[in-house]
Amino acid sequence: MAQQYVDMDTLKFLLYRVHDLQTVLDQARYADYDQASVDLFLNATKDFSDKELFPFFREMDAAPAHFKEGEIIVHPQVEKYMKKAGEMGLIAALFDYEVGGLQMPNTVVSAAAYIQETANNHLPGYVGLTNGAAELIIHFGSKALNETYVPKMLTGDWGGTMCLTEPQAGSSLSDIITVAEQAEDGYTISGQKIFISGGDYREAENIVHLVLARIKGAPAGTKGISLFVVPKKRRTENGDLISNDVNTVGDFQKMGQKGYCTTHLSFGDEKDCKGWLVGEANQGLKYMFMMMNGARIAVGRGAAAITMAAYQASLAYAKERPQGRSLTRTGKKDVSQEQTLIINHPDVKRMLLFQKVVSEGALSLVLLTAKYHDLSTTHADPKEREKYLLLLEMLTPIVKTYPSEMGSVSVSNGLQVLGGYGFCTDFILQQYFRDIRIFPIYEGTTGIQSLDLLGRKVTMENGKGVLLLSEEIGKTIREALGIDTLAPYAKQLSGKLELSQEVLQFLIPFVKKGDYQRFLSDATVFMEFFGNIVVGWLWLNISIQAEKALVSGETQYTGDFYTSKIHAMKFYFKYELPKTTALAEILTNKEVLTVAEENSWFA
Amino acid sequence: MAQQYVDMDTLKFLLYRVHDLQTVLDQARYADYDQASVDLFLNATKDFSDKELFPFFREMDAAPAHFKEGEIIVHPQVEKYMKKAGEMGLIAALFDYEVGGLQMPNTVVSAAAYIQETANNHLPGYVGLTNGAAELIIHFGSKALNETYVPKMLTGDWGGTMCLTEPQAGSSLSDIITVAEQAEDGYTISGQKIFISGGDYREAENIVHLVLARIKGAPAGTKGISLFVVPKKRRTENGDLISNDVNTVGDFQKMGQKGYCTTHLSFGDEKDCKGWLVGEANQGLKYMFMMMNGARIAVGRGAAAITMAAYQASLAYAKERPQGRSLTRTGKKDVSQEQTLIINHPDVKRMLLFQKVVSEGALSLVLLTAKYHDLSTTHADPKEREKYLLLLEMLTPIVKTYPSEMGSVSVSNGLQVLGGYGFCTDFILQQYFRDIRIFPIYEGTTGIQSLDLLGRKVTMENGKGVLLLSEEIGKTIREALGIDTLAPYAKQLSGKLELSQEVLQFLIPFVKKGDYQRFLSDATVFMEFFGNIVVGWLWLNISIQAEKALVSGETQYTGDFYTSKIHAMKFYFKYELPKTTALAEILTNKEVLTVAEENSWFA
């Protein structure tokens, strides 16, 4: 058996019971699926991960993807994984039957991707980006584009990428300058793109880049950005693949995720790079951002997965490693006693329980967001679809951020559990620690997600998103209030929900005064505050289901399993939720210390 | 000029003005020093660091120290650095004139070590451990041991180490099993030691190991541990150096500090390893721990140094990198504006100010602790010495922990400032991020330091240490209350001091009931709580001196310099100090969730 890297019981408990997958499976689009078939699919994915992902995880770190003579050299498993994922239908799982997809719920595909990411977070990105690029073509591309590119992408023969970032623009997409010039048979593309994940690898038959560029004469800023398909190789009229003047000019060597290549691409060095417009001109950013919810959920999911894998590794170590002794009632240790396992030291238990609440809380958040995504697109009732879309919009910046930020802290705790060994390359924790550190940066940094949460999502439709989310949280609180053992925690969460209202009542007036700088200056603090409460809600919800299972004597899982969930909820409410008291104090402090074009503060 | 890695102005302001080095220089032992000579020494150290440390920092990471055919291969600069440090008197700086030392204050030597550690944290450990090993021999060793070993160590020709950890014992020193057997001419040593920093390198003429071992028949536990000098090579009667059967059997490859070798040593494989007892039998741990305050301050100092260097690197980047635009009063960006520098984004300012308060606060803590160390050994009045010793004891676990833990968070923020570039090996932040992660583990993990703080230091002499420290904090509060602009912050800190009393009044009764497990179960949370308040005190103190300088129109530094210190204090009091509200809430929560030999919580 492979080393334990994922807790399948918890995943299934959250998926089927806590988030009630059945409500998703009930939608017409998913008529062919039931829990049994989903279970088979997830078990097959776990088996696939044991064989094709986990065994290559450490060697991909030891021998990083790298640039050599105009090419990117990746681990040979990349090609094998892409093809096998294609064969298993993983690349196409979300898509309609008619384009060769499996028409599976996002929630289920997310669970499967999560399993793979716990096993090896360097590989799934190749599939994820190919899937994302194909999705853009399917949704917005012409029939011809679909026919030319999608089938080869879904088999894993061709890779796909998203090309947004440019050297001079960074996170600021309004400053993109890659140029598309109208030509007889489409557009000619020229420009530079950096930080392109999965941007090239020698074994790929072709790579299909989805590129943001500016058509000559387009308006400045984000309103002038269009989306193009720009393949590495293009087909000639007789069907041959020839070079499309897309050049890999270098790569970025990184501290972690070393097996997942990050490239610098140059388009049109020889003025022979052709691009095909996707959808309408100047709508590129809109299209890209319609896919961005998915990409952001995926980043949060990857971080949640690493957090879980690190927790499993720390837990296994703590259960095996003897060291020191428990304290006696004199406050001393009795050296004639045998050594105890380190899991018996309260501080180690505290660190492990912290890892547990973050990793399982993050997973619960990922699954819930994916469920909202499904219901927002497939629910029969348009009003319900609208509701779920707003809930999805609310949670998207949080699901990107909480697992990334708190997961990084959690993995660091996990490293600490191993003491000196945690820092050594012979142990896996240090790799998780390095790998996860990119997640608060990917797809919009934590700062940008926080601006999105407070600046767009909280204020959208006059606060309707916050209202809907508060209603969902309120339902859980009311249910928990009816269960004696959970009522105190329900009250605690209810107080936090009120606290969030107080914080918003302090902040919203800045918008009304037009003082957006001040309104948003502590957006990142607000993100930590609000994310913490949301995950508290999810834990209360988990404990309700666990308590019900205990009371009804369910035997799907052991009694210990259910009890551990309730214990973890209590841990969250004792050690995590109180942090919001301090965060609210910060958020409602009237002193303004970060807003000004003022460098003397760093004199 | 080398890249900026240290802020010499802040270092000197803290050293001379805030911590008033003169009170140390006034002690008889330091009669030969004044501020001018200290200044020369620090400037020379900075110059030395520019030339001999910083230029090798990144290459030592790129080409790690490693084990090869029974030897450890290190960067050639290690040998050069050791010899030059010896020539400059850095290894011997603390020691008495009569043994070849410079008889400098610990505070000054710490400042010099700090400068070096900001430049390159991989090299100073070689000197630090050689110094520590020599100190043990000087304090507790026989005349013969002194004559044989110390002179060669102080010139940097011979290295030194501390050999504590063994594979089966980890942090639990009572489980040490390395054996010393009485022989005709001393002892024969046999055993294994792991995680030995600077444990061996090919160029060293000799390495002098200070080894904890158990004399055959000694009592169990820590009472049966003795200290031995065990050189890699021993002298024959005619003065030749021959092998002493100390074998390097491997090394530990690490995530960071790769240039600082970490070795696995085996003593007496051929039963020909001789050791010489230091001081009396069974007193080894006591001797080792008399040096441990110094070692723990040194670890905190190293972490503070990395935190500072990372802050300087982030700040330089933020001042140069244009990206995005400031928000206008409509909440939108105006793309016709030029891009702004990222330092002008409030969230970036928040991250940089966080780095500033942690790095300078940690430095202030290091200098204060070193000052207490000096006064506890050199003050003319024995009562004062006793007072400073208790203050030193109180601060030691905090100075080890605050810079390590908060420094790690600060460096992570520093990496975030650079966005994607922060994760790339072309930029230095990711190296600081990896390097600093060992500091919460070195010389007693954060968990162990926290047990020391709450379990030993808070309770020692019926709480006299806490009382003395509270009195020192009280003095600062009273002074700040007298300055209008600072009075609100003084009141805030005063409230926190009261809060710490409430927390202790909740916790201490557990000791009285003999429930040590419960008393100490949240020791790490208490450490975070108490450390945060201590650094708040230091910031208030800094702001008093800055305010006085502004009022009196001092021109030693610019007005902006002083203003920036006051601004940083306000930042600390807005964003950091409130965290203690939540931590106190956790500490006084009655629920017990981590104490029990109970693994079902992880079912």
UniProtKB/TrEMBL annotation, chains A, B:
Cofactor annotation: FAD
A molecular function GO annotation: flavin adenine dinucleotide binding
Residue span, Acyl-CoA oxidase/dehydrogenase middle domain: 162-268
Acetyl-CoA dehydrogenase-like C-terminal domain: residues covered: 470-591
Ubl conjugation in keyword set: no
Entry keywords, A to Z: FAD, Flavoprotein, Oxidoreductase
SUPFAM superfamilies linked: Acyl-CoA dehydrogenase C-terminal domain-like, Acyl-CoA dehydrogenase NM domain-like
Pfam families the record matches: Acyl-CoA_dh_1, Acyl-CoA_dh_C, Acyl-CoA_dh_M, Acyl-CoA_dh_N
Keyword Signal attributed: no
Residue ranges annotated for the Acyl-CoA dehydrogenase/oxidase N-terminal domain, each copy included: 40-157
Source taxon at top rank: Bacteria
Xref: InterPro entries: Acyl-CoA_dh-like_C_dom, Acyl-CoA_Oxase/DH_mid-dom, Acyl-CoA_Oxase/DH_mid-dom_sf, AcylCo_DH-like_C, AcylCo_DH/oxidase_C, AcylCoA_DH/ox_N, AcylCoA_DH/ox_N_sf, AcylCoA_DH/oxidase_NM_dom_sf
Domain Acyl-CoA dehydrogenase/oxidase C-terminal residue range list: 282-451
Regions that span the bilayer: none
Similarity section: Belongs to the acyl-CoA dehydrogenase family.
Protein name: Acyl-CoA dehydrogenase
Species for this entry: Ulvibacterium marinum
Highest classification ranks of the organism: Bacteria, Pseudomonadati, Bacteroidota, Flavobacteriia, Flavobacteriales
